[in-house]
Specification:
The complex is a heterodimer. Chain A is an alpha+beta fold. Helices cover about 25% and strands about 20% of the residues of chain A. Chain A is built from 5 helices and 15 strands. In chain A, strand 9 and strand 10 form a beta hairpin. The relative contact order of chain A is 0.13. Chain B is mainly alpha-helical. Chain B contains 12 helices and no strands. In chain B, helix 7 runs parallel beside helix 9, helix 8 runs parallel beside helix 10 and helix 11 packs across helix 12. The chains are: A alpha+beta, B mainly alpha. The interface between A and B is large, with 45 and 52 residues.
Chain lengths: ~325, ~220
């Protein structure tokens, strides 16, 4: 009879304990490696955003025969910058692997961005409840709009509540000049109906408050295919041409201080909640405040933040090192 | 006693070595610490502990610490504790170190109510450090301190550009109007914009006050709930 070569019980127990010890050693390292990889991917995204925005700035300078001053390229410092960057880089560079869901509440639909010209106009993103530049953009359902909530929503944020027709909703614009009770030339409201076949209808309501040259108060209907939308004035006035881009949402925030892109060392973009950082709210911006658990709510990489600097460098920093609420930091890194 | 098989002896040897590695790692390196606060240094961790324990007295002591970083961290942590920390932060507003006063101004605006804005307005008018004045005027904006609009308007003509920039933001926020003010514009242009802001404020202060009272009341109610 041949002797059996199988493991004995003590041997098996020891082998199990060895496997357990290996797991104890390896798992934390594996977790660390995953986090490091995500941080690196995020840094790479910011690098690509930096390169794309530099290319865009060069293009604008070329189109304007060198007359454009990089510091004056306000479109890049507005909340619509993702749409501009997307012309020069793929959309995936706008998504941080540790960024979480792009929006709260509202469905993460295609983001629509209006620009007054395809390459250089100011981009105004249409995102539910997103604040950017001096605008507050509100997404409201038909029912919400018609129940008169739009006026009060201009003063206090109102969450979007779908009313059974998710393809039809209003976007209300507010330039921040609340309290005076009028729509001025920067305010308007747009109703978008998506038809599900790649086309969309758009209805614009605007009140002029003394600026008839910009908006016609009788402006009513317009129509569009998926890309270019012409908004016609009833009175036969010249068309205002909008370019409708799809996409543009981002996990990153751009410094909207209109910094000089040709010099290095200023914060250009970073991990953030909201398309723009600094002057939108800056010191009043509770995003930089620590919550009850001591965390700054937009930080992703184990409490740190990836920062893209003008000149192309990307660094992983502690929030205090880049907090615009610290005056020395603000002067050194954020302000023009 | 039965003799161990050679195979078992090898296994036990490997297990002992691995166990030593694990024990050594936790004994000498404290394991893998994923806490951001610990990684940022012992001072940060200590202040964070005090904040979590809501130890206002402890934070108050730390706010007077000779190490400026510790004092700033403590003052910042008090700002997150809300209304009950206001008296202690007010004391830090008088610290002799400008960097601490600056952080205290920000923390004060975080913790106080709009009708407690007078100490910040005093800093805006009197502090020698432009960073402190800037933080204080920003705090007035954050508090929506409509009763201190005069100090904010005066700060729009401050010699320091950062103060002017923040004063303009604060005024715009409170008065709900954009008057075309740029902090780095030439003096004459800035003065013209300040005059427009003053004129608007003279006309609209009543409605702005009413508006902010409504907003701030709603905010307080939300906090209470």
């Amino acid at each position: 009879m041949t002797a059996r070569k199988a493991f004995t019980l003590p041997e098996l127990m020891v082998v199990m304990s060895i496997i357990g010890l290996l797991v104890v050693i390896i798992v934390p390292y594996m977790t660390g490696i995953t986090t490091t990889a995500r941080i690196a991917l995020c840094q790479n995204n910011l690098l690509r955003i930096g390169q794309a925005s530099q290319t865009w700035a060069t293009d604008v300078a070329t189109q304007t025969h060198g007359k454009a001053n990089p510091r004056q390229l306000s479109a890049l410092a507005s909340s619509g910058w993702p749409a501009l960057v997307m012309h020069y880089a793929s959309k995936d560079c706008l998504t941080c692997p540790e960024g979480g869901p792009m929006y709260e509440g509202s469905p993460p639909e295609q983001q629509l961005v209006f620009r007054t010209s395809p390459t250089s106009g100011t981009a105004i993103p249409l995102i539910g409840m997103m604040e950017g530049g001096s605008y507050k953009v509100l997404k409201l359902s038909n029912t919400q709009w018609e129940s008169g909530i739009a006026e009060s929503a201009r003063q206090e944020p109102v969450p979007y509540i779908a009313d059974g027709n998710p393809n039809e909703y209003w976007w209300g614009y507010d330039d921040g000049a609340v309290g005076s009770g009028d729509y001025d030339f920067q305010d308007c409201a747009i109703k978008i109906t998506k038809h599900g076949d790649g086309t969309a209808s758009i209805y614009v309501r605007a009140e002029t408050a003394g600026h008839p040259e910009i908006w016609d108060p009788t402006l009513t209907t317009c129509y569009a295919k998926s890309e270019d939308i012409n908004v016609h004035h009833n009175a036969g006035a010249p068309c205002i041409t909008f370019n409708l881009s799809v996409g543009g949402a981002s996990h990153y925030g751009m410094n909207d201080a209109e910094i000089d892109m040709s010099k290095g060392g200023k914060v250009q973009a970073l991990d953030y909640l909201g398309a723009t950082a600094y002057s939108t709210d800056d010191w009043t911006n509770e995003k930089w405040d620590r919550d009850e658990d001591g965390h700054v709510d937009f930080l992703r990489h184990r409490g740190r933040v990836n920062v893209l600097f003008t000149g192309g460098a990307v660094k992983l920093l502690w929030p205090d090192d880049v907090d615009p609420g610290d005056l020395e930091v603000a002067r050194e890194l954020w302000e023009p | 006693m039965r003799k161990l098989s050679p195979r078992l002896r090898v296994f036990i040897g490997v297990a002992v070595v691995l166990a030593l590695i694990v024990v050594g790692r936790f004994l000498f390196f404290g394991g893998q610490d994923t806490s951001a606060d610990s990684a940022r240094g012992p001072e940060h961790a200590r202040i964070e502990q005090l904040r979590q324990a809501k130890d206002l007295a402890g934070l108050g002591t730390q706010a007077a610490h000779t190490n400026e970083r510790v004092a700033r961290l403590a003052v910042g942590a008090m700002g997150r504790l809300g209304a009950e920390a206001v008296p202690k932060i007010e004391r830090a507003l008088e610290d002799k170190r400008p960097r601490v006063r600056e952080r205290a101004a920000t923390a004060y605006a975080q913790a106080a109510r709009h009708d407690q804005a007078a100490p910040l307005a005093k800093l805006v008018r009197e502090d020698a450090s432009p960073n402190v004045r800037a933080a204080a005027v920003a705090g007035l904006g954050r508090l929506c301190a409509f009763d201190e609009m005069e100090s904010i308007l005066a700060a729009m003509d401050d010699p320091d550009v950062a103060v002017r920039r923040r004063a303009s933001k604060a005024a715009t926020r409170i008065a709900c109007v954009i008057v075309g003010y740029q902090a780095d514009d030439p003096v004459a242009k800035r003065h013209a914009a300040i005059r427009r802001m003053r004129a608007h404020w003279a006309k609209e202060r009543g409605s702005a006050r009413q508006y902010w009272m409504m907003i701030l009341k709603n905010r307080e109610a939300k906090k209470t709930n």
